[in-house]
Design a protein that fits this description.
Structural class: alpha+beta
Strand content: 15-25%
CATH topology: Alpha-Beta Plaits
Helix content: 40-55%
Number of domains: 1
Shape: globular
Radius of gyration: 15 Å
Number of helices: 8
Enzyme class: transferase
Low-confidence stretches: none
Largest sheet: 4 strands, antiparallel
Subcellular location: Cytoplasm
Bound molecules: ribavirin triphosphate, magnesium ion
CATH architecture: 2-Layer Sandwich
Family: Belongs to the NDK family.
Protein name: Nucleoside diphosphate kinase
Mean pLDDT: 96
Cofactor: Mg(2+)
């Protein structure tokens, strides 16, 4: 059983794709255990994409992800991280297979509708960047000290 962080990016929210995307993961048997609409601060965005700091597209990436509300989600399920990355499709939508989220909804690498953590370590780090301890407790990602 894994938890992961999935996020409908500002282009997906603007295009009213939240319901379609949530349904795909629910249909696959995954469980939505936490979610919120939020606008990301620049600092949070730079932390989220810290691994890309030196890339030429970093500024554009941060501008885009802070350009409007995102829909941040916590999901639970077996083999969730691997399967969710397959369901999202390749980073560049031009290479993403039809039937994947990016393959169905996007054409431009800079606006590719959805983010999903790429490993258990990224999931933990990203969930902590987007959700408070109370929210992670409520979602069952963290267990309270009294439960231990
Ligand atoms: P994400 O982190 O957003 O879920 O996407 P990803 O794992 O599939 O791809 P990653 O390598 O982490 O890249 C993060 C985001 O940077 C943008 N990008 N632009 N212009 C370019 O060549 C380029 N390459 C990457 C994409 O929007 C990608 O989602
Ligand atoms: Mg990534």
């Amino acid at each position: 059983m894994q938890h992961t962080f999935l996020m409908v990016k500002p282009d997906g929210v603007r295009r009213q794709l939240i319901g379609n995307i949530v349904r795909r993961f629910e249909n696959r048997g995954f469980v939505l255990v936490g979610a919120k609409m939020m606008t990301i601060s620049r600092e949070q965005a730079e932390r989220h994409y810290g691994q890309h700091k030196e890339k030429p597209f970093f500024g554009e990436l941060v501008d885009f992800i802070t350009s409007g509300p995102v829909f941040a989600m916590i999901w639970r399920g077996d083999n969730l991280i691997e399967v969710s990355r397959i369901m999202m499709g390749k980073t560049n939508p031009l290479e993403a297979a039809p039937g994947t989220i990016r393959g169905d909804f996007a054409t431009y690498v800079g606006e590719n509708v959805i983010h999903g953590s790429d490993s258990p370590e990224s999931a933990e780090r990203e969930l902590e960047n987007f959700f408070s301890t109370d929210e992670l407790l409520a979602a069952g990602v963290l267990s309270s000290a009294t439960d231990r």
